[in-house]
Amino acid sequence: MEVHTTQCCILMGCLCLFYPWSQVCEWREPEELAALLDLELRENGEPQHQLLQRIRDVAKYSVKTNHPRFFNQLFAGVDYHALTGRFLTEALNTSQYTYEVAPVFVLMEDEVLSKLRSLVGWAEGDGIFCPGGTMSNMYAMNVARYRAFPEVKLKGMWSLPRLAVFTSQQSHYSVMKAAAFQGIGTENVFKVKVDDRGCMIPEDLGETIELAKSQGAVPFFVHATSGTTVQGAFDPLEPIADICDRQGLWMHVDAAWGGSVLFSKEHKHLMRGVERADSVTWNPHKMMLTGLQCSAILLKDTTHLLKHCHSADAKYLFQQDKFYDTSLDTGDKSIQCGRKVDCLKLWLMWKAVGSKGLEERVDRAFTHTRYLVEEMKRREGFELIGKVAPVIKERMMKQGTMMLGYQPQGGRVNFFRMIVISPQLSHQDMTFCLNEIERLGSDL
Amino acid sequence: MEVHTTQCCILMGCLCLFYPWSQVCEWREPEELAALLDLELRENGEPQHQLLQRIRDVAKYSVKTNHPRFFNQLFAGVDYHALTGRFLTEALNTSQYTYEVAPVFVLMEDEVLSKLRSLVGWAEGDGIFCPGGTMSNMYAMNVARYRAFPEVKLKGMWSLPRLAVFTSQQSHYSVMKAAAFQGIGTENVFKVKVDDRGCMIPEDLGETIELAKSQGAVPFFVHATSGTTVQGAFDPLEPIADICDRQGLWMHVDAAWGGSVLFSKEHKHLMRGVERADSVTWNPHKMMLTGLQCSAILLKDTTHLLKHCHSADAKYLFQQDKFYDTSLDTGDKSIQCGRKVDCLKLWLMWKAVGSKGLEERVDRAFTHTRYLVEEMKRREGFELIGKVAPVIKERMMKQGTMMLGYQPQGGRVNFFRMIVISPQLSHQDMTFCLNEIERLGSDL
């Protein structure tokens, strides 16, 4: 019976995907939704027809992030090959720590990471898949600290001078989270000025480093960004690399969002100089549509820093008297113990469409964006939105016609952030989006 | 065409699950396996029949962790309801940070966490799902540090005295990883002695705390274990809580493995006193079979420590002028930004079998274990395995009949660690396991 239920359930899950949802979301107030879903967990189990209804409800009231008009986050859309990889990952249910328990995935992760590194411009190096870009950025900061002060692992921060981290005013908030979590402190993150487009100003980086030193702090880590979260800006990597070289600092590039431009011959110039970095964060679950989660931290290092920094040599997992090459037991590179398999979805999609197919997706997203900008310039009233944005957003959500985020930034009042990823998108969707903002705000 | 491929692929994925695999694994040497899989990623995509063959290969050479004779890790088996929840999670592909983008899952996570807390014995509190038990343990250590020294978030460790962490000699290695990652240093983790069964000796905890103080360190965190990784020991929580109370220390219980005994009226006494802890790690992906990953950190705290400790107030996600109750935007409790949905699989399984069904699973696992111990006592030659274990293990893997891990510990030479979880297991499997070890090692 159990298997029968499952087959129905799996079928339902698949149907949810192919069902032509007309709305991006079916908004309900929290109290109403809680009552509709009947969330309470009870002593006794439920019959099959009720479970099937629950699955339908979960799908119905969830946001359709694979709807072409979901522009709300830095992920969207569905790639069916990647989705197959995700289903297979779930079905095989294993952890990535040893060759013994994940033979296929240990070798596959190695291949995928090596291919991503080659796009960065590195013939060798190291890396690992992490649960999201923030974790990848944290790995970079931790390995950089360990390279500069290996005694930190044993003795903690008390053996170190006060450290300083540098990043732009518009970098992702994970830099602050990392500094807090790793005991460095958010006060020791120095914010470098950006230009109008949101790109770090290298001259200001130089000055900020001198400022930190004059305050007695020891610079060790520069966190540049390729594709900032709100404006999508690419920091100028060459001049930043010059400064890092001169000062002997670890250069990290957070390309969680922007990294995928490296697939494109036309757009990879945005990351010129990335091969000079020490580490790169790259989330294929964003622009590449592999599905959450798929984030890699890539390192240029060939001295096993990642393993030395994070190893704990647990004897029950990493026995040294094993009958195969234990360098394949990559679990000690990770700060996690069990680690989800995140490589299969990307590998299968890449096999299916080839590097060329991935390149086309990136190029298409840029084409749509260019079209959108041109269209917007031709219309009036799109410059400042301010207090009107939250009202337009509320109407948008309640009508469920599309999803688009807004925020203020720096001196700017609220504005909408349009994210163009999904390969299902057309120019018509771009036009729809502008028309819809006009329609929703016409009386404001 | 894409959809057609997918449907075939999905079907294949499901077939892999129901296919009656005779072997737990089909061992291949790494070089041979790499060649068989043809891992290389190329410029051009591949035709459908080749993709289908790739999916078959991935399944064929992966370890069948849902085979009843996979005893190798602290996870095993498959629950088909949980699996349905995992497929649905993948299909809906969202992140858990705001009500806007994950309305169903924000409410559902809240309900599941609340139910887990009530089993711990707390009527209120806080918590979050994390990518694995190590991360959950790290959260506990970080929140404890923040409660004791809130200035650490801003100023880093330089504003703090040297800290000391306490855990048993047989606790999980994630304590060391956490101390290293968070800038506390592994040297500041004090190891408390254990008795023969592997349980922390409370008197030694008291003495070790005094020792740390005499060395000028400031104790702040006691990490107890319910269900150690190798011996499955439960630390005595009542006397540990007495000491933590007296000394004003944060008491954390790592019940990643053992937590699920709280479902069982018969076995929950093993965690007597857990309600006195400040935080508990509990991984339903282990004994409860929800599938990787499903790990919760639960807190007794009701003052929003979790949020204060980890928040970064990103304006593009957590706008304060939203049209709904922004306390539902739980993303700032997390150190991650995007966070996978881990609640649905547990919720759906719980709905399907009820608390009663989960209790039965725990009780059944204990019954099997008791049977195994009795059987083992009746046989000779099972006391010391030593250098024989790696050879038996190699033969076991190459024949693929079952999977079972071994390790040395403390003064003990190599021994096999038997993990009994899967609801598909019978007494016959226990007998098989013992016979198989005898067979594989008969000539040694």
UniProtKB/TrEMBL annotation, chains A, B:
InterPro entries: PyrdxlP-dep_de-COase, PyrdxlP-dep_Trfase, PyrdxlP-dep_Trfase_major, Pyridoxal-P_BS. Residues 1-26 form the signal peptide. Keywords: Decarboxylase, Lyase, Pyridoxal phosphate, Signal. This is Cysteine sulfinic acid decarboxylase. Homodimer. PANTHER family: CYSTEINE SULFINIC ACID DECARBOXYLASE, GLUTAMATE DECARBOXYLASE-RELATED. Its cofactor is pyridoxal 5'-phosphate. The modification N6-(pyridoxal phosphate)lysine is found at residue 286. GO terms for cellular component: cytoplasm. GO terms for biological process: carboxylic acid metabolic process; taurine biosynthetic process. One of its GO terms (molecular function) is pyridoxal phosphate binding. Belongs to the group II decarboxylase family. It comes from Oncorhynchus mykiss.
